[in-house]
């Protein structure tokens, strides 16, 4: 179980190409996807400086969504795509890292 995912990426990012951010956002299952924000100004390390209002507004909207009581059920975020009452549409806000397989080379 996961929470929603917000992507904020600049089109002129010289460290992580914009297309990589778009591809990654497309790999997230729709029920865990929140939004992809494309920023026209800035590079990797100056996005906030050059897009302050947009960045903070998008983060604020994301936090508001995640903390809205209508979206929270039993300390989980309802994914918004499945309105039935089974637990498939609940997203654990405190996932256990023990559920993540260690794929690093030893």
List the helices and strands and how they pair.
Blueprint: E1 5-10, H1 18-27, E2 33-39, H2 47-50, H3 52-67, E3 72-73, E4 76-78, E5 90-92
Parallel strand pairs: 1-2
Antiparallel strand pairs: 3-4, 4-5
Describe this structure in words.
The protein is of the alpha+beta class and 106 residues long. The protein has helices at 18-27, 47-50, 52-67, and strands at 5-10, 33-39, 72-73, 76-78, 90-92. A 3-stranded antiparallel β-sheet has the order 3-4-5, with no helix packed on it. A two-stranded parallel sheet has the order 1-2. The radius of gyration is 16 Å and the shape is flat.
Care to give the gist of this entry?
The protein has 106 residues and is an alpha+beta fold. It is built from 3 helices and 5 strands; from the N terminus they run βαβααβββ.
Please tell me the overall pLDDT.
77
| Beta-strand fraction estimate | 15-25%
Structural class, please? alpha+beta
**Arrangement of strands in the largest sheet:** 3-4-5
Tally of DSSP helical segments:
3
**What is the CA-atom radius of gyration, in angstroms?**
16 Å
Largest sheet entry: 3 strands, antiparallel
Uncertain regions spanning at least 5 consecutive residues: 81-106
H/E series, N to C?
A: EHEHHEEE
Question: Notable features of this structure?
Answer:
two-stranded parallel ribbon, flat, 3-stranded antiparallel β-sheet, single chain, alpha+beta, 106 residues, 3 helices
């Amino acid at each position: 179980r996961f929470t929603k995912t917000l992507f904020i990426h600049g089109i002129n990012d010289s460290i992580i190409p914009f297309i990589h951010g778009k591809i990654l956002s497309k790999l997230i299952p729709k029920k865990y996807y929140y939004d992809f924000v494309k920023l026209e100004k800035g590079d990797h390390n100056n996005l906030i400086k050059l897009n302050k209002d947009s960045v903070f507004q998008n983060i604020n909207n994301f936090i508001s969504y995640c903390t809205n009581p209508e979206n929270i059920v039993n300390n989980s975020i309802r994914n918004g795509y499945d309105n039935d009452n089974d637990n498939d549409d609940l997203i654990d806000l405190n996932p256990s890292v023990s559920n993540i397989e260690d794929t690093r080379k030893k």
